[in-house]
């Protein structure tokens, strides 16, 4: 039994006549009659009672017509759903986020605006460190990622820089550098932190930013005492609140309102900044990308948010 046989049968059932059904199907009447007869032989019962001026469904034919119509409609719905998935209108985008990248307003804005435009696309978020991003992108465990600085740039992955923001110093409330402040937190010169205990995200997790902070300290004339290394910036801020040291974070991390800490701008020089990158497999820019929703998300971010080009 072929799908065309069902379409032929339903056309005849709806028209009540082979001649009109043949015209509707743009075919000759004798071949149509033959195909319907072959369907009846395969089923083992008559679908129609042949009358001098047309046909009517038998009771078995009526039951078969109802099920055949549902089958045709189900196939049409399945085809339309598959088309929407291929076009990226339905599906899932798995997004990896490093903790500090997740606090950048551009990241949340991009995800929120994409969901507004494409409400039938689901979004899964996974918290990662920078060292995990490449592996997850390559293996497909995440489709795209927002991070500060890529650890490396392997073939097959691209990273677009979306923004760049200053770093700020995080001091525990009551720190001597805050004693003379009047409302607004003071600017802090990096060299005034020479004798402080630094809390940094450990080098394997964020080697790029770790190296940038060390280089800035050396430029300021000292080598920082790294008292603790943590897996995530949020933990570093909490440790500062506990009085265990100081840390440096991107300015957008000030959105994390941790009791017991004060965020202070850095005096320049040095110009210590934190970029925001968007990473994705090159295959998602291909017209034949297997995940239409993820491909559509890549196009959306690059079109609306890329400020400085792929680097």
TrEMBL record:
It comes from the Bacteria. Gene3D superfamilies: Periplasmic binding protein-like II, Winged helix-like DNA-binding domain superfamily/Winged helix DNA-binding domain. GO terms for molecular function: DNA binding; DNA-binding transcription factor activity. SUPFAM superfamilies: Periplasmic binding protein-like II, Winged helix' DNA-binding domain. Residues 1-58 form the HTH lysR-type domain. One of its GO terms (cellular component) is protein-DNA complex. PANTHER family: SMALL NEUTRAL PROTEASE REGULATORY PROTEIN, TRANSCRIPTIONAL DUAL REGULATOR HCAR-RELATED. Belongs to the LysR transcriptional regulatory family. This is Transcriptional regulator, LysR family. It comes from Paraburkholderia megapolitana.
């Amino acid at each position: 039994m072929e799908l065309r046989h069902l379409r032929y049968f339903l056309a005849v059932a709806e028209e009540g006549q082979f001649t009109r059904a043949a015209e509707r199907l743009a075919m000759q009447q004798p071949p149509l009659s033959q195909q319907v007869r072959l369907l009846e032989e395969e089923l083992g019962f008559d679908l129609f009672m042949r009358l001098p001026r047309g046909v009517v469904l038998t009771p078995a034919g009526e039951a078969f017509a109802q099920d055949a119509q549902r089958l045709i409609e189900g196939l049409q719905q399945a085809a339309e759903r598959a088309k929407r998935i291929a076009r990226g209108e339905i599906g899932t985008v798995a997004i990896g986020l490093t903790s500090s990248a997740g606090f950048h307003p551009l990241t949340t804005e991009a995800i929120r605006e994409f969901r507004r435009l494409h409400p039938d696309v689901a979004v899964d978020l996974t918290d990662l460190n920078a060292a995990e991003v490449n592996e997850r992108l390559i293996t497909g465990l995440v489709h795209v990622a927002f991070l500060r600085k890529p650890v490396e740039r392997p073939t097959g992955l691209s990273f677009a820089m979306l923004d760049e923001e200053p770093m700020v110093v995080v001091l525990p409330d009551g720190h001597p550098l805050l004693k003379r402040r009047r409302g607004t937190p003071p600017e802090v010169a990096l060299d005034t932190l020479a004798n402080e205990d630094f809390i940094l995200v450990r080098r394997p997790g964020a080697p790029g930013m770790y190296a940038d902070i060390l280089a800035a300290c050396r430029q300021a004339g000292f080598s920082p005492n790294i008292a603790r290394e943590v897996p995530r910036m949020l933990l570093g801020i909490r440790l500062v609140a506990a009085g265990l040291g100081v840390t440096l974070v991107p300015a957008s991390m000030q959105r994390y309102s941790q009791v017991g800490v004060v965020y202070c701008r850095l005096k320049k020089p040095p110009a210590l900044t934190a970029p925001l990158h968007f990473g994705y497999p090159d295959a998602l820019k291909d017209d034949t990308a297997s995940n239409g929703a993820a491909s559509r998300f890549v196009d959306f971010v690059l079109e609306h948010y890329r400020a400085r080009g792929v680097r």
